């Protein structure tokens, strides 16, 4: 049997793994033993699973494998941020980024090859879309990073937090993302608390409800504007799910999980959404979600973008205006931008199926011709 016909164990959550072992005629606790080897010891070779009997090891060898994505390239930034380009299939690759801070280490994970949402200020959008990632390709990003970093589960973890804020819209790859996040949360997986696993969405309203019923994780919503006209321009998905519907979905989320909060991400772009009137609109929006908070992200530029980062004093004034209205407002520091690893700079390699890459390249060429 070749590798192609074998099953990748990284595609299973705990229940899936138990079912698979049952199919092999094995006891469920054997599945859990192997799960510990995979996620606590980051072992991908059955040979080394010393408390698994020789016969079972041979059986596993024949039926399955542990297949994390291949590291095609990886690079560290001056500030300790680390980025991996991980090969998926054919010419596709996605990026994962590790961001160390004094009290935590955050891994930013991708959910799709490219993205179909076409948010105007995001570099991933210029790449177009190819496909959803498999569960193994999502949890595999964490497996690769954890192994590289020498992560030890349950003690002195290097990866203390995961954010589904890499390439793609995670709620458009719902089942695989939920399975991967359940492995991040599971004690026999990476064992992270619900507060430490965050899914970020551009605002797919029905899926926000479904998520709250499926798994206990934290929610972030990419807002970027608190008036419909501007938000539709920046995040075209807003046309389908305008602010009133998004607000209602967020209120339902809070009602179901009363002790939690939602983080609203707001990327600040010069002259676009960074003026006092925009802050006032945001304050009004946040009044309907009083337990929630705002995370301001200075815009990170990428080649060909028509947007610019807001000036430092404008960013400060915007934050102060929100704080004065008693809205918990954090400013995200820009990390890893010297290796294009900052928010909105992830590109990977996408075999585009949407023609968006071609359109973007054409516009770049036209801009260059104009400039010449
Ligand atoms: N599709 C999901 C997951 C991607 S998260 C979502 O939209 O939430 C990536 C985060 O970075 C989002 O908040 C996104 O709006 C933000 N972002 C995108 N492009 C950016 C840029 N150029 N500069 C700063 N932040 C950006």
Automatic annotation (TrEMBL):
Binding residues annotated for S-adenosyl-L-methionine, in chain numbering: 168-169, 200, 222-224, 300
EC number: 2.1.1.192
Cofactor: [4Fe-4S] cluster
Keywords for this protein: 4Fe-4S, Cytoplasm, Disulfide bond, Iron, Iron-sulfur, Metal-binding, Methyltransferase, rRNA processing, S-adenosyl-L-methionine, Transferase, tRNA processing
Record GO biological process: methylation
Subcellular location: Cytoplasm
Catalytic activity: adenosine(2503) in 23S rRNA + 2 reduced [2Fe-2S]-[ferredoxin] + 2 S-adenosyl-L-methionine = 2-methyladenosine(2503) in 23S rRNA + 5'-deoxyadenosine + L-methionine + 2 oxidized [2Fe-2S]-[ferredoxin] + S-adenosyl-L-homocysteine; adenosine(37) in tRNA + 2 reduced [2Fe-2S]-[ferredoxin] + 2 S-adenosyl-L-methionine = 2-methyladenosine(37) in tRNA + 5'-deoxyadenosine + L-methionine + 2 oxidized [2Fe-2S]-[ferredoxin] + S-adenosyl-L-homocysteine
Active site: 95 (proton acceptor), 343 (s-methylcysteine intermediate)
InterPro entries: Aldolase_TIM, Methyltransferase_A, RlmN_N, RNA_MTrfase_RlmN, rRNA_lsu_MTrfase_RlmN/Cfr, rSAM, rSAM_sf
Comment on bound cofactor: Binds 1 [4Fe-4S] cluster. The cluster is coordinated with 3 cysteines and an exchangeable S-adenosyl-L-methionine.
Residues given in the record as [4Fe-4S] cluster binding sites: 115, 119, 122
Domain spans labelled Radical SAM core: 101-338
Pfam families reported for this sequence: Radical_SAM (PF04055), RlmN_N (PF21016)
Keyword check for Disulfide bond: yes
Primary enzyme class: transferase
GO molecular function terms attached to this record: methyltransferase activity
Family from the record: Belongs to the radical SAM superfamily. RlmN family.
Function summary: Specifically methylates position 2 of adenine 2503 in 23S rRNA and position 2 of adenine 37 in tRNAs. m2A2503 modification seems to play a crucial role in the proofreading step occurring at the peptidyl transferase center and thus would serve to optimize ribosomal fidelity.
PANTHER family, alphabetized: 23S RRNA METHYLTRANSFERASE (PTHR30544), RADICAL SAM CORE DOMAIN-CONTAINING PROTEIN (PTHR30544:SF5)
Miscellaneous information on this protein: Reaction proceeds by a ping-pong mechanism involving intermediate methylation of a conserved cysteine residue.
Family annotation (HAMAP family): RNA_methyltr_RlmN
Protein name per UniProt: Dual-specificity RNA methyltransferase RlmN
Native source organism of the sequence: Dyella mobilis
């Amino acid at each position: 049997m070749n590798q192609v016909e074998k099953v990748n164990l990284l595609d299973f959550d705990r229940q899936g793994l138990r079912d698979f072992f049952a199919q092999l005629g094995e006891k469920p606790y054997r599945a859990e033993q192997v799960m510990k080897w995979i996620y606590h010891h980051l072992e991908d070779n059955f040979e080394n699973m010393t408390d698994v009997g020789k016969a079972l090891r041979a059986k596993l060898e024949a039926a399955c494998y542990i297949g994390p994505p291949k590291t095609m390239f990886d690079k560290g930034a001056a500030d300790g941020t680390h980025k991996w380009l991980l090969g998926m299939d054919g010419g596709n690759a996605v990026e994962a980024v590790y961001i160390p801070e004094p009290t935590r280490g955050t891994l930013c994970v991708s959910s799709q090859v490219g993205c179909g949402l076409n948010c105007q200020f995001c570099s991933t959008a210029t790449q177009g879309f190819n496909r959803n990632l498999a569960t193994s390709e999502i949890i595999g990003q964490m497996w690769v990073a954890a192994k590289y970093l020498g992560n030890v589960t349950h003690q002195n973890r290097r990866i203390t937090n995961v954010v589904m804020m890499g390439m793609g819209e995670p709620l458009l790859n719902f089942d695989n993302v939920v399975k991967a996040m359940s492995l991040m949360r599971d004690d026999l997986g990476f064992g992270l608390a619900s507060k430490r696993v965050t899914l970020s969405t551009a605002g797919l309203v029905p899926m926000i409800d479904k998520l709250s019923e499926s798994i206990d994780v934290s929610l972030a919503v990419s807002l970027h504007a608190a008036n419909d006209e501007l938000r539709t321009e920046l995040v075209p998905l807003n046309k389908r799910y305008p602010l009133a519907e998004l607000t209602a979905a967020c209120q339902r989320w809070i009602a179901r999980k009363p002790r939690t909060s939602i983080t609203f991400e707001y990327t600040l772009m010069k002259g676009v959404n960074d003026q006092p009137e925009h802050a006032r609109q945001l304050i009004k929006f946040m009044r309907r979600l009083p337990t929630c908070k705002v995370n301001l992200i200075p815009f990170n530029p990428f080649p060909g973008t028509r947007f610019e980062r807001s000036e430092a004093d404008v960013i400060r004034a915007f934050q102060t205006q929100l704080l004065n209205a008693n809205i918990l407002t954090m400013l995200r520091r820009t990390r890893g931008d010297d290796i294009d690893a900052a928010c909105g700079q992830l590109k990977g390699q996408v075999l585009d199926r949407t023609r968006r890459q071609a359109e973007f390249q054409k516009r770049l060429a036209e801009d260059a011709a104009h400039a010449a």
